[in-house]
Write a structure and sequence with these properties.
The structure holds five protein chains of five kinds.
Chain A: H1 11-23, H2 28-65, H3 81-91, H4 102-118, H5 137-145, H6 147-158, H7 162-193, H8 198-204, H9 219-234, H10 246-249, H11 259-284, H12 296-315, H13 323-351
Chain C: H1 3-13, E1 19-21, E2 29-31, H2 37-46, E3 54-62, E4 67-75, E5 80-88, E6 94-96, H3 105-116, E7 119-121
Parallel strand pairs in C: 2-5, 6-7
Antiparallel strand pairs in C: 1-2, 3-4, 4-5
Chain D: H1 10-28, E1 52-54, H2 70-74, E2 80-83, E3 97-101, H3 110-114, E4 120-122, E5 137-138, H4 140-147, H5 169-172
Antiparallel strand pairs in D: 1-4, 2-3, 3-5
The chains are: A mainly alpha, B alpha+beta, C alpha/beta, D alpha+beta, E alpha/beta.
């Protein structure tokens, strides 16, 4: 049978799987569904492992920046610390506030969690390693990542807590503001590639290192920096972590969540961070392109983790902005800069002054 | 736009809230994110220290007063010893006075380092908090070496200090001071010029000098508002008049000035400690004070400049070995009382910044 | 002005409203009648030579026979210090609020009211400050106060 | 936004942002100053005030305490309770009960200073957490047991080795005990 | 207590479930012990030592302990400092808001018995065990950071020794 999933690297595995399943007499459609399910499980586990790793990594980096050790006692340099955290969170009692909005309160973490994973359908992990290559891939990512804000707003509203509500409202305002500069800086890339497909974007940057979009002077670096700022805000990280500002709103939108539901928010936050970093790597740093002696997925992971590291460095260095300054920064600085940059890029593209 | 209506609501901040530095509770009348009115509620740490001191001898009061303002417990020890010495007209040996000055100033540095860290954390930067505490540890080491405790010292006694400086204190102290002086550059590099820090603190929570005086605000908060008033100069105690140091003054009275002023004070304190270490004479470290110390009847209000402002203690003696009344006055008491007078119409995040830069410590308020 | 000059100046200029007490060990302590308190305080704050613009502290005292209220004043511009003491009877102790002179007195007076039971006139907001809201065991700082779970330190 | 990110000189701002990042990333490469507690331990300074213990005679192992009750009177929290009735015949006090309640003790060291017989000391031990609240009431046996291996300088007059002038142990003995095991530079 | 709570009940009914349950028990309690997130709760002197313990020199994170500001996500209250009569109902409220399994460390003399404020004080709660159940007490005024770490390790040992059956009864 023809296998429609574009995971070419994993193709042998799926051919073997479909062969086995067909020998049991399953119909072609069932085989397809089961294959997708297996793929989903693989994806889910990979991402969960990455999220758990990121939590551990962040703790280690923060600790070493502060001349501490971080997790140390559980395994080599505390490597299974976050696994223990996850198991513990699963065991925790699920406290439900009596005055909650039942439906909204329940679904908020689920939506947040699912939305965080959805983006990976079109994420090019490596050469021929993508679940589905839509022709509107980047648009799809922008759409599904914005689901997060709905989840946060729902969490803030459903908890029936003033701090949570303030957190939810802040996050809505923040994401709405930062979506615009983010899209505007991505548009510069799309303008040049002429396609919204993730695979096209990556392949257009193949070859020489100066084909990477970040090196497209003069607008490339500007687009990258503005994207990174907007992405940091999108992922709710310091200096833009006002929805869960510990010192002001105690824990912000997730103040009333415990146990598994909190774990969902927690993991989703780190997966979101990974998503925006992966997007930065794909759009600006050439995605999985690189010398061929290292596998393409390793290039992708390396670049992504590089961006994640940068975001962590930023997080543990800077203070937090205030909510109105955040808006002002977005609307008065970031939006004009990104649009000017977009126009500049368009002019350069039209005039053909680029290589 | 005029038909858009907003509804005011009440937000309860504390007594358990990460940025109230302990157990202060503030009921905020909010309009969206804007704070319209503040009503502080205190007393969640009211431990009746004053009542306890009425039933303790003068020597026993000092460990109790350690817990009154634990971040600068040395100055609590000192102010009570000063009051008792003034009641009984005790002459303190030279060496003891020098040791006291060293300890008071080291404690001021420790307290300001804690302030630096906590303020940075309240404004959202976590790393400076750990840097501040890291250098504070080196001072705590000095204290532990001298008197055996990290926080509640019970070191300065009526008539002197409880023990002489240990061997090797002086080189170690110099080393710690050098490290802190070197690290101040790091602290400043992290925050002073940082645009995010600037927008969060410059022009936020301006405390006018007139309001400050009216509400009895003292110490760095008052000096940041442009009033040059430091008890080390204006009402000299101990041997501060022998040392050369500046009283840093700033004029805007906002969060940024309050923050910068404390960094300046760390430098001045380092300067004072160095002078005191150099001038340290030989001799007794304690005057002869009987264990059954009974000052003559009378009353005295002793006040000193500690890291938060005026720390005072009002002691009334009736001629017995226990004081008739001990009333303590902490600077933070007034610093919280003044909040409703100037910190209105700010955003919630600003209130946190203002609260942090007022450097409030709750047991001093609640006692 | 040093301390003796200050004492002389105050006795001289206050037209008999202030009487120097002997108990002061470091700074002079003056006695003032409760009825003249506000007048004297305003004068102390506004006098060009004194300018006592800073209320350091306000203590209520229970001596066992009477109540005393001590105002510790300081002048930031002239570097002066003086104490003002008001003596009140045990029964029906009442004093005028000095908030109009120094706003700092607000909380001190509230505290004095709840801990000693000295009533403060014209305070505006006499509510519990340090004690729990549901406190009903009287005025704990009074010398004769006692409660079931109040344990005095054993005398050895 | 007074000041403002835009109008304060964007290059100055960027420079400041980078200098902050430079400082934190500089620390990233340094060695941690952390003490890995259960494996490594600080050597406490000699004067460090941990738990209160009763000291025993170095030669015959009997308690130094003469039950003079000075420490009990000095204690600001009444954590020490001594019961020692006088023997009617020998007129000597018999130590019947010596209890320290660590739920009350404030580790101020006044008892150590009050003692004239080198009998009570604040040792440099601190690991006594317990799940049992009542276990903090230590009787004389426990106090003596914990204090067995505590080194001290005997200042009692009757001993020949004791110096004439009454001094506290810390003056005579060098307190040059730095925290050991401090890895890396403290910077 | 979450999903896993019901698991042991089923496993025990299975053939050979006893062995599965014992190892499951060990694994679950291990996870609990190794990831104690503490509530950022401090009132007095001990709070400063708690901060110092979290700082670079002693580093709580090493034991896998990080602070959470909200009681819902915390496993452990370190009652650091004096609890007064005015504060006691709030402490109880915080404890009630925490999700099971929850633990309490009483840090310092004040929380054990009132410490220096036992005598002559009209406003201090004489021991927090009147308010909430306490798992581990740490003496000291304030305890050194090492003492606190030692107390936390004691608590971890205690958690590991728990039995799942205790859990069932606890609800």
């Amino acid at each position: 049978m023809t296998f429609p999933v574009a995971v070419l690297e994993l193709y042998p595995l799926f051919r073997w799987l479909s062969g086995v399943l067909e020998s049991f007499g399953f119909s072609a459609n069932t085989v397809l569904i089961i294959s997708y399910a297996v793929l989903g499980v693989i994806m889910f586990s990979a991402l969960s492992i990455i999220a758990l790793f990121l939590v551990w990594w962040e703790r280690k980096i923060a600790a070493h920046m502060q001349q501490r050790f971080g997790p140390m006692r559980h395994g080599w340099h505390g490597w299974y610390q976050t696994i223990m955290d996850a198991i513990k969170l699963l065991q925790k009692e699920d406290v439900r506030v009596a005055s909650r909005d039942k439906i909204v309160y329940f679904w908020a973490p689920v939506i947040c969690f699912v939305a965080a994973y959805l983006a990976y359908i079109v994420m090019p992990w490596g050469k021929n390693l993508i679940v589905a290559d839509f022709n509107i891939g980047i648009l799809y990512i922008m759409a599904v990542t914005t689901f997060t804000v709905i989840a946060l707003l729902m969490a803030g509203w459903g908890s029936n807590n003033k701090y949570a509500l303030l957190g939810g409202m802040r996050s809505a305002a923040q994401v709405v503001s930062y979506e615009i500069p983010m899209v505007a800086s991505i548009l510069t890339v799309i303008l040049f590639v002429g396609s919204m497909s993730m695979v096209d974007i990556v392949t257009s940057q193949s070859g020489w290192i100066f084909n990477w979009f970040i090196f497209k002077l003069p607008f490339g670096p500007i687009a990258f920096v503005t994207y990174l700022i907007a992405a940091t805000a999108e992922a709710n990280r310091t200096p833009f972590d006002i929805p869960e500002a510990e010192q002001e709103l105690v824990a912000g939108f997730n103040i009333e969540y415990s146990g598994m539901k909190f774990a969902m928010f927690f993991l989703a936050e780190f997966i979101n961070m990974f998503t925006v970093s992966a997007l930065a790597a794909t759009l600006f740093l050439g995605g999985w392109n690189g010398w061929s002696f290292i596998p393409s997925w390793a290039w992708f992971l390396m670049k992504t983790f590089g961006v994640v590291f940068l975001m962590m460095l930023i997080r543990w260095t800077y203070p937090r902005l205030r909510v109105d300054q955040l808006m002002e920064f977005a609307w008065k600085f970031l939006v004009p800069v990104t649009f000017a940059n977009l126009i500049l890029a368009a002019v350069i593209k039209y005039a053909g002054w680029h290589w | 736009m005029s038909d858009l209506r907003t509804e005011e609501y009440y937000l309860n901040m504390g007594p358990h809230h990460p940025s109230t530095h302990g157990v202060c509770r503030m009921v905020l009348k909010m309009d969206g994110e804007k704070v319209k009115e503040i009503e502080p509620h205190i007393g969640y740490l009211h431990r009746s220290i004053e009542k306890i001191c009425e039933n303790r001898t003068y020597a026993q009061c000092i460990p109790i007063l350690d817990r009154f303002e634990y971040v600068t417990a040395m100055s609590c020890n000192y102010v009570f010893a000063l009051a008792a010495e003034r009641l009984a007209s005790i002459e303190v040996p030279e060496r003891a006075e020098h040791i006291r000055v060293i300890m008071l100033e080291l404690n001021r540095i420790a307290s300001h380092l804690l302030f630096y860290g906590v303020t940075a954390m309240d404004i959202g930067a976590l790393t400076p908090f750990l840097y501040g505490l890291r250098e504070r540890e080196s001072i705590l080491d000095l204290f532990e070496m001298t008197c055996g405790q990290r926080l509640t010292y019970n070191y300065i006694r009526v008539g002197g200090v409880s023990r002489d400086l240990p061997n090797g204190f002086i080189p170690k102290c110099h080393e710690a001071l050098n490290t802190i002086e070197k690290k101040l550059a790091d602290y400043e590099g992290l925050l002073n010029e940082n645009p995010i820090w600037l927008v969060r603190t410059v022009g936020i929570g301006v405390l006018p000098a007139k309001v400050a005086l009216d509400y009895g605000v003292s110490g760095p908060c008052l000096r940041a508002s442009g009033v040059q008033y430091d008890l080390r100069r204006n009402d000299p105690y101990s041997i501060y008049d022998r040392f050369e140091f500046d009283i840093p003054v700033r004029h805007n009275g906002d969060c940024y000035d309050r923050y910068l002023l404390r960094l300046d004070e760390i430098r001045q304190s380092i300067h004072i400690v160095r002078q005191a270490l150099d001038a340290l004479p030989e001799g007794d470290f304690k005057a002869k004070v009987s264990p059954n110390f009974k000052p003559p009847a009378g009353e005295v209000y002793a006040r000193i400049e500690n890291s938060r402002g005026e720390l005072g203690v009002h002691v009334i003696s009736d001629g017995t070995k226990k004081p008739l009344r001990v009333k303590t006055r902490g600077a933070s008491y007034n610093h919280i009382a003044v909040l409703p007078a100037f910190a209105t119409d700010v955003l919630l995040a600003d209130l946190v910044a203002i609260f942090a830069t007022m450097d409030v410590i709750m047991p001093e308020v609640d006692r | 002005m040093d301390k003796d000059q200050l004492s002389a100046y105050l006795t001289d200029k206050s037209e008999g409203k202030l009487t120097l007490l002997e108990v002061g060990r470091h700074d002079p302590i003056f006695k003032v009648e409760a009825s003249q308190l506000i007048e004297v305080c305003t004068w102390l704050r506004d006098d060009e030579q004194l300018k006592f613009d800073f209320l350091c502290n306000l203590s209520g005292v229970d001596t066992g026979e009477q109540f005393e209220v001590v105002y510790q004043l300081a002048s930031t511009s002239k570097s002066l210090r003086v104490d003002i003491k008001v003596i009140l009877p045990y029964d029906g102790a009442e004093i005028e609020s000095v908030q109009k002179v120094w706003a700092a007195a607000n909380w001190h007076e509230r505290e004095m009211w709840e801990l000693y039971g000295i009533n403060v006139k014209n305070h505006g907001k006499l509510e519990f400050l340090l004690l729990p809201e549901d406190w009903d065991e009287g005025f704990p700082m009074r010398k004769d106060w006692d409660a079931p779970d109040f344990i005095r330190m054993p005398e050895f | 936004m007074q000041g403002g990110i835009g109008n304060m000189g964007i290059f100055k701002d960027i420079k400041a942002l980078f200098s902050g990042m430079r400082i934190t990333s500089k620390h990233l490469g340094r060695h941690a100053i952390t003490l890995q507690y259960p494996e490594e331990k600080w050597e406490m300074p000699e004067r460090s005030r941990g738990v209160v213990v009763l000291l025993s005679d170095k030669e015959d192992g009997s308690l130094n305490c003469t039950s003079c009750m000075l420490c009990m009177r000095a204690c600001p929290t009444a954590a020490i309770v001594i019961d020692s009735p006088r023997d009617p015949e020998t007129k000597k006090r018999n130590l019947k009960k010596f209890e320290i309640d660590f739920g009350l003790c404030c580790f101020c060291g006044l008892c150590e200073e009050a003692c004239n017989f080198s009998a009570i000391k604040l040792a440099t031990k601190y690991e006594f957490s317990s799940a049992d609240k009542d276990s903090f009431l230590w009787d004389v046996n426990k106090l003596q047991e914990v204090g067995r291996d505590v080194d001290y300088i005997d200042t009692r007059k009757k001993k020949k080795v004791a110096p004439k002038k009454e001094t506290t142990p810390a003056e005579t003995k060098s307190p040059e005990k730095k925290p050991v095991d401090q890895k890396g530079e403290n910077s | 207590m979450g999903l896993i709570k019901k698991l042991p009940v089923y496993t025990e009914k299975m053939p050979g479930g006893g062995i599965v349950m014992t190892s499951l028990e060990a694994a679950l309690h291990n996870a609990q012990a190794k990831s104690l997130w503490y509530l950022l709760f401090g009132t007095a002197c001990c709070a400063i030592e708690l901060m110092c313990t979290g700082a670079s020199r002693y580093d709580f994170d090493r034991l896998g302990m990080i602070f959470r500001a909200t009681p819902r996500q915390a496993d452990l209250i370190i009652a650091a400092g004096t609890i007064t009569k005015k504060m006691a109902p709030r402490l109880r409220l915080l404890y009630d808001q925490m999700a099971e399994p929850r633990y309490v460390i009483a840090m310092g003399g004040c929380t054990i018995k009132g410490g220096p404020f036992y005598y002559d004080s009209y406003s201090v709660e004489k021991g927090i065990d009147h308010i909430i159940p306490v798992d581990v007490y740490i003496p000291g005024c304030p305890p050194r950071p090492e003492s606190l770490l030692e107390g936390c390790i004691t608590l971890q040992e205690k958690i590991k020794k728990q039995s799942l059956l205790d859990w069932q009864e606890k609800d």
